[in-house]
Amino acid sequence: MNNKGFTLIEAIVALAIFIAISATLAQIIVVSIQNQIKITTTQNMFNQAIFALDKIEKELRMAKKDVDGGCVGLENNFLISGNSTIFLYYDQTLGLRCKKFVLEDGKIREYISENKTATFAEGVDVTGDVVNVEDLRFNKMGDGRDDNLQPKITMIMKIKNKKIENSSSIMLQTTISQRRLDL
Question: Are 158 and 133 in contact (CB under 8 A)?
Answer without folding.
Answer: yes
